[in-house]
């Protein structure tokens, strides 16, 4: 499981980091802890979920170039793309909606595009967390880097719990 986001305090609680938030929820739910994994340039936690060893990671690279870290994780832990779940923000879904799918397009998401390029396949799972479209004529790139509104922050734990529930089901 790889939660996508941007590293550093500047990007905490922004829409683009909902993948990090969902990964954090899963790790905390199973009493795990992230630690630096230098060979993969990611924060990694090893969990036991339903009797299976699950690696949860947050790349320490920026969202748009996270594919290298995903590929390094897959290689290091010997995980095939079909067993990878990438958790990401999705503009084309209503805020709060969570959906899992295997393969498909990147819908203009640069983190997914880079991951697909690095893995050499589209055949990995995507857990999409809806953040909704930007208001008015705001550019999508600016919208995803804005912090959640106060009302959205109240709902964020529920969305992350829904994402963690989906992961536990698979």
From TrEMBL:
It is found in: Cytoplasm. TRNA binds at residues 11, 62, 64, 110. The record marks 89 as: Stabilizes the basic form of H active site to accept a proton. The active site is at 16 (proton acceptor). The record marks 6 as: Discriminates between blocked and unblocked aminoacyl-tRNA. Its EC number is 3.1.1.29. GO terms for molecular function: peptidyl-tRNA hydrolase activity. Keywords: Cytoplasm, Hydrolase, RNA-binding, tRNA-binding. Monomer. Belongs to the PTH family. Catalyzes the release of premature peptidyl moieties from peptidyl-tRNA molecules trapped in stalled 50S ribosomal subunits, and thus maintains levels of free tRNAs and 50S ribosomes. Hydrolyzes ribosome-free peptidyl-tRNAs (with 1 or more amino acids incorporated), which drop off the ribosome during protein synthesis, or as a result of ribosome stalling. This is Peptidyl-tRNA hydrolase. It comes from Corynebacterium casei LMG S-19264. The gene is pth.
